[in-house]
């Protein structure tokens, strides 16, 4: 893993959260995107080499909607940039970690992604990210 790629924050209202984070960070978000397969709309802010990704559910059965229902708004996941996501998946499996995705899938911000089970990382949902 090369660096923290982004921190994902689950929010109820993307427009309101954009205003909040614009004020906090002193900068506008640079990109919004909907990921239909995950049932989310996203908004990205750049902070140095890292990013903040705001995630709002677009349907009630999405993972983010379920997260907010169970835990409320807040940090949803920590994403790490990797050079070879397939090799990293195999390495983590070899270390005994459970992956929620055996194969990478399309994600936001021109990435392919895979997630590690939060129970194996002290309750933190870990995302692996690689450029498409």
UniProtKB/TrEMBL annotation:
InterPro entries according to UniProt: Glyas_Bleomycin-R_OHBP_Dase, MeMalonyl-CoA_epimerase, MMCE/EMCE_epimerase, VOC_core
Transmembrane region(s): none
GO molecular function: metal ion binding; methylmalonyl-CoA epimerase activity
PROSITE patterns, alphabetized: VOC
UniProt keyword terms in alphabetical order: Isomerase, Metal-binding
Domain of life: Bacteria
One Gene Ontology biological process: L-methylmalonyl-CoA metabolic process
VOC domain mapped to chain residues: 3-131
Pfam families in the cross-refs: Glyoxalase_4 (PF13669)
This enzyme's EC code(s): 5.1.99.1
Family under the similarity heading: Belongs to the methylmalonyl-CoA epimerase family.
NCBIfam families linked: metmalonyl_epim
PANTHER family recorded: METHYLMALONYL-COA EPIMERASE (PTHR43048), METHYLMALONYL-COA EPIMERASE, MITOCHONDRIAL (PTHR43048:SF3)
Protein name as annotated: Methylmalonyl-CoA epimerase
Native source organism of the sequence: Christiangramia sabulilitoris
């Amino acid at each position: 893993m090369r660096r923290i790629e982004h921190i994902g924050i689950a929010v109820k209202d993307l427009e309101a959260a954009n205003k909040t984070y614009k004020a906090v960070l002193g900068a506008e978000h640079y990109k919004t995107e909907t990921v239909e397969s995950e049932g989310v709309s996203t908004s990205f802010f750049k902070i140095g080499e890292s990013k903040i990704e705001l995630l709002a559910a677009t349907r009630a059965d999405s993972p983010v909607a379920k997260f907010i229902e169970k835990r409320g708004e807040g940090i949803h996941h920590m994403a790490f940039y990797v050079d070879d996501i397939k090799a990293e998946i195999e390495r983590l499996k070899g270390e005994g970690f459970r992956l929620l995705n055996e194969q990478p899938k399309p994600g936001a911000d021109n990435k392919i992604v895979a997630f590690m089970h939060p129970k194996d990382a002290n309750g933190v949902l870990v995302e692996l990210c690689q450029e498409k």
